[in-house]
Amino acid sequence: MTRGFYIGRFQPFHNGHRAMVDHIVDEVDELVLGIGSADVSHTVRNPFTAGERVMMVSKAVRDVDVPTYVVPIEDIDRNAVWVSHIESMSPSFDVAYSNNPLVVQLFEERGIEVRDSPMFDRDRLEGSDIRARMLDDDTWTDRVPDVVADVIDEFSGVQRLQTVAKDDVSERWEAGEDD
């Protein structure tokens, strides 16, 4: 049996993430989805709480054909022990999926196989672009699974993002200091 691990902030979980999940489940028997930066919320870059993202992801992958576990992972800001921190918070896994060079390096240093994550429609499906569309009251729901849009609507996520963007974080947003 092979269990895969895929981590993301999922701010929000979008159709590119879902396409990646569909790709991964063709290669594994079980999947662990790590909600990264679980300790951060109510900012322009990370507007949604870990619990809200667990709801988004859980509902968006409910129909996949393999057992799937959604696990919040807090940031620790210590790269040397980051993978062991993940391992302490997650079911064990055999392979990780990422394109982030640092993440790949850290998993490989720990002896965990890393497989590339194909990018899906990256020009349209990027969290920072979707959040910018939410801020501008532009169309964004076509870029996320319908259930994710419903979850975001349930807790007035767009309104929250627009509200937090009005504080000092908005200066960093306008300066392009995001993702």
UniProtKB/TrEMBL annotation:
Family listed: Belongs to the archaeal NMN adenylyltransferase family.
Cleavable signal peptide: none
Keywords: ATP-binding, Cytoplasm, NAD, Nucleotide-binding, Nucleotidyltransferase, Pyridine nucleotide biosynthesis, Transferase
Organism: Halosimplex pelagicum
Pathway per the UniProt entry: Cofactor biosynthesis; NAD(+) biosynthesis; NAD(+) from nicotinamide D-ribonucleotide: step 1/1
GO molecular function: ATP binding; nicotinamide-nucleotide adenylyltransferase activity
PANTHER family for this protein: BIFUNCTIONAL NMN ADENYLYLTRANSFERASE_NUDIX HYDROLASE (PTHR21342:SF0), PHOSPHOPANTETHEINE ADENYLYLTRANSFERASE (PTHR21342)
Protein name: Nicotinamide-nucleotide adenylyltransferase
Reaction catalysed by this enzyme: beta-nicotinamide D-ribonucleotide + ATP + H(+) = diphosphate + NAD(+)
